[in-house]
Amino acid sequence: MKIKMLLLALGMIGAGALIAGAGASQDVPAPRYAVLTDTGGVSAQALREAIDPLFDSEAGLGETRAVVVMRGGEVIAERYAPDYGPQSRFLSWSIAKTVTSLLVGIMVSDGRLALDDPAPIAAWRQTGDPRGAITLRQLLQMRSGLRNIEQVAPAAQSDTLDMMIGAGARDQAAFAADKPLVDAPGSTFRYSSATSMILAGIVADHLAPGGTAQARRDATTRFLAARFSGPLGLTGFTPEYDERGTVHGATMMHMTARDYAKIGALILHRGRANGRPLIADSWFDTMLAPSPANAAYGAQIALNQAHARNVLFPGRASASLVSAMGYRGQFVLVSPEQDLVIVRLGNSRDEEIGALKDALARLVRRFPG
């Protein structure tokens, strides 16, 4: 996978080939609709009319591989492209960032981490280091002030690629934390996969303080099973780890389409799953609050608010709608006012994302509320 990413950055393979390798596939073709019902206040016909265009290869939306619609806690529509099905695992890309925020939320709920204390990074504790002022909240809201060049190409100028497959690949959180401060902490929004890896490193540090790479990985795996994927019933959840034993909290998690829907439902229900709280309700006041440096971004999640850097569709859906989002058109849309979760997974080029968002907005508007 890392080799494919490097080849992509160097222009030696197309992004479509990378995505094809990254998404899981099963050999048995799935039926067009695994589920399609009249429940949820919308007819099956109306759902079909809104969902089928997402799979139209001539519509200029890219390749949709899975769509799941959940309303009132029940899956009311579920469709897959050929060669994909309910057991297929799909790469999260940056949906992993939202998962990382939820993991931090568990630790804040437990009292292990404090939002407005200096982030617990040992390398920043040296006397006179200005990074010592960066708080956990600022990391979550992508306003740490650390240098980061998120672009993929040219590869030689990409901090992200250097972290994932270059000099920083073995210990990505430490590599990210070593970047210099270029803006005052809290002052500037800078989208950064490196920031998400710093957060993932903080989680591992608390679970296995001073531990070996294997100890960090084992502790994180146990924590995920006990506090996240297990209680949520995520049947396909498979995160990757770097060589230091830090979970790839920025991009590299794999799940089924229904797993993504369950994560959306956890956000919708403000930390409750299967009738019990996994994360404190108050965490979602933090997670869904606009970043002071970008009103369209919360704590590792996109908000449907008007802003120059908005990535959703303000004015065409409720302002309370939020989304975990990933590269090439991965969406987990959550609309509390409509009791609605919509998952779309696939492969869309940059020039197709606008039309894809238009189609998703039309699907959202099919539902009352």
Report on this model:
This protein is an alpha+beta fold and 369 residues long. The chain folds into two domains: 14-93 and 256-369, Beta-lactamase (3-Layer(aba) Sandwich); 95-253, Beta-lactamase (3-Layer(aba) Sandwich), CATH 3.40.710. The chain has 13 helices and twelve strands. Strand 11 and strand 12 (340-347) form a beta hairpin. Helix 4 runs parallel beside helix 8 and helix 8 packs across helix 9 (213-227). The longest helix has 16 residues, at 95-110. The N and C termini lie far apart (42 Å). Residues 1-22 and 24-29 have low confidence and may be disordered.
How are the SSEs ordered, and which strands pair?
Elements: H1 2-9, H2 15-22, E1 33-36, H3 44-51, E2 63-71, E3 74-80, E4 90-91, H4 95-110, H5 136-140, H6 159-165, H7 172-177, H8 193-207, H9 213-227, H10 229-232, E5 238-239, E6 253-255, H11 257-268, E7 272-273, E8 276-277, H12 283-287, E9 302-303, E10 322-326, E11 330-335, E12 340-347, H13 353-364
Antiparallel strand pairs: 1-3, 2-3, 2-12, 4-6, 5-6, 7-8, 9-10, 10-11, 11-12
Helix pairs in contact: 4-8, 8-9
Order of helices and strands: HHEHEEEHHHHHHHEEHEEHEEEEH
Task: Identify the overall geometry.
Answer: globular
Low-confidence stretches: 1-22, 24-29
Please name the CATH topology of the largest domain.
Beta-lactamase
Name of the top-level CATH class of the largest domain: Alpha Beta
Q: Please give the oligomerization state of what you see.
A: single chain
Question: What's the pLDDT, averaged over the residues?
Answer: 91
Q: In whole angstroms, how far apart are the ends?
A: 42 Å
CATH superfamily of the largest domain: DD-peptidase/beta-lactamase superfamily
CATH architecture of the largest domain: 3-Layer(aba) Sandwich
Question: How many strand segments?
Answer: 12
- Structural Rg: 20 Å
